[in-house]
């Protein structure tokens, strides 16, 4: 945004949710509770994975990083959305909007890559169990995590550089609960058809391709397990079902929002809420309620904390 060129645009108006004060307060309480649970749940997973030696394995190392990305992704949009629910003038500064989009795509791009890494981890664990520790070394895992952050940064900076200097003249109403790239681009005073095509290729097509690759990889794992042992299929399904749920719920809304930014799906508030509010909460729910090892580790950590507190 080059304000020195005479642009008077200093803020955007977020339309948010329609309805009376009673509905706004209901949304405020609901989303506040969900966001609090998201932060607490993901922090609990990160602390448990860090301080419990039984969870020092590649799968839980990746899970801890996924929890961090989920928490950051939710924090990029949800707090501003919650505070706007209690105000009549739901605004966000131009630079605040740019920052919101930058961090949303930064953490979102990194999470896409990390989910692919987690699928590769499950493939090695299930299809090559004897070589699992050798292949999934600490050095490789650290490299994968760094790569996910690098890809997330490249993904977001490539779009931010093209968006940040767009001229915005008079139209400043965003029909959503947060700043989203397709909707902000449409408000520019110049022709942005080429930029919108770039968004489809960069965000929408990337989401769709990653989603398809992940589903194919899980299918290959299940077919491989079935060919080796029919009895192992149920165990593999139990292990992979949580991953498949997370992948579907994360990539589904992304694909619908960014693959067709010209249509009304880009301003679909239900998809936006699901993508930024509900999905980051599903990670701690799925990986704690379904994982007995994680539950035992959390109970052990809690008992150690209570015991150390009583000693004081």
Describe the structure.
The chain is an all-alpha fold and 312 residues long. The protein has one domain (3-311): Rhopdopsin 7-helix transmembrane proteins (Up-down Bundle). Helices cover 74% and strands 3% of the residues. It has helices at residues 21-51, 58-75, 78-84, 94-127, 132-135, 138-163, 181-186, 193-228, 231-259, 269-289, 292-311, and strands at residues 11-14, 91-93, 173-174. Helix 4 packs parallel to helix 8, helix 6 (138-163) runs antiparallel to helix 8 and helix 8 (193-228) packs antiparallel against helix 9. It is globular.
Short description:
The protein is mainly alpha-helical and 312 residues long.
Instruction: Just name the CATH architecture.
Output: Up-down Bundle
Task: Describe the sheet with the most strands.
Answer: 3 strands, mixed
Total DSSP helices: 11
Low-confidence residue ranges = 1-7
Structural class: mainly alpha
**Inertia-based shape:** globular
Strands of the widest sheet, in order across it, are: 2-1-3
* CATH class categorisation: Mainly Alpha
Number of domains: 1
Question: And the CATH topology?
Answer: Rhopdopsin 7-helix transmembrane proteins
Overall average residue pLDDT: 83
Q: What is the string of SSEs from the N terminus onward?
A: EHHHEHHHEHHHHH
The name of the CATH superfamily reads: Rhodopsin 7-helix transmembrane proteins
Amino- and carboxy-terminal Cα gap? 55 Å
